[in-house]
Amino acid sequence: LTTSVTVDTAEGKTVERVVPKPEFIRHRAIFFFENENGAPDLQYLVYAIPDLLGDDLSQDMYMDVLDGPLATATRMWRAGLDPLADPSRSMMRSFARRIHADQDLQGSFARTDSLWSIRMALYESESDRLTTERTFEGEDVLSLIDEGSIFIRRALGIPEPHIERAVDLAVSQTHTAFLEALSAYAYGSLGFARQEDLDKALADIDRALEIDPEFCLAHMVRSLILLTKGDAAGAQESTAEALKQEHRVSERWRLTLRVVHFATIPDRESLLRVARTWGELYPYDVKPFELKAIFHAVQGEPEEARAALEEALRRDPARADLLLMLGEQC
Predict the structure, then answer these.
(1) pLDDT tens, residue by residue, 5-43
(2) Global pTM?
């Protein structure tokens, strides 16, 4: 099931790590959840629940989340659709087949007084056959996401001894325990991804950090927004704040944060080292090569940017957005 690799960690140390063999990694997509209440103040959870669930699953080295809600939102915007308007099952199935996912996860949520319920359903993407589903109920919606993550891993056949031993940080730690902060973060992340109103996205992220100053990922998104706006000094300051809280997040996010940090300084050698480590530890992740491509493009290195994008597309040929980026570098 596993093999050993020697890598440089995000902290710059050389270590030997045991990682799953590629044939045993589970490749799944996670899509938007339906807001059964239709309550406008809960609409952010259409995105936030699958986003947190995908991040929680991604702590496990056996899990490769091929497509998360942010990538789906980008596809829907390009099709002229609203990603928070409860997309249909048929649309999500078409997305799953397009990215060659074996299975995909969708679901719904509701709140009645103080009681939350989240339904999670796992589908065979090709046949659209429902393979398993379960509804979780309780007063803490974030704890229900944690429960659902364990359920999905078991449903996918990840070995029970591994599940019991693996690091599994609660989503209230990796993100925030405050739903108001989570709402602001969700809208800010979506706004940044859409790139239409960065000032509004920044205001949303600032609101999340006002509520929860220890929200590591909100600091990181703030850094990316400021970097995009050309405020390198502000981006460095936000990244420094995120690094103070990096113990709260998973290894994949720590690697992401290190790449962002070295991009804002900038420190080319360290950035490329961390990206290389990331690719060795998580051989199906596209993100390190996407970030490398963006860094090379900003640095005026089109050949290196093309090489990074080609490597990303080798790992995920269905990423049309990466094809567009590649075309821009040609």
Answers:
(1) 676 665 667 777 666 665 556 557 788 899 998 999 999
(2) 0.85
CB 79 within 8 A of CB 297: no
Please report the beta strands in 103-190, taking only residues with DSSP state E, as ranges in sequence order: 103-112, 115-124, 129-138
What is the distance between the terminal CA atoms of the chain, rounded to a whole angstrom? 40
Place of tokens 């992340």: 189
Average pLDDT, the chain: 85
Task: Give per-residue pLDDT as tens, 293-312.
Answer: 877 887 788 898 888 888 88
**Residue 218: CB partners within 8 Å, gap ≥ 6?**
176, 181, 185, 188, 205, 208, 209, 212
Instruction: Report residue 228 as tokens.
Output: 């995009």
Name the percent of the chain in helix, strand, coil, to the closest 5: 55, 20, 25
Query: What is the Cα gyration radius of the chain?
Result: 19
Q: What is the DSSP string of 15-80?
A: EEEEEE-GGG-EEEEEEEEEESS--GGGTTHHHHHHHHHHHHHTTSTTEEEEE-HHHHHHHHHHTT
Helix axes of 69-78 and 320-329: crossing angle, nearest 10 degrees: 70
The H-or-E segment that residue 94 falls in is: helix 89-98
Residue 242, pLDDT above cutoff 90: yes
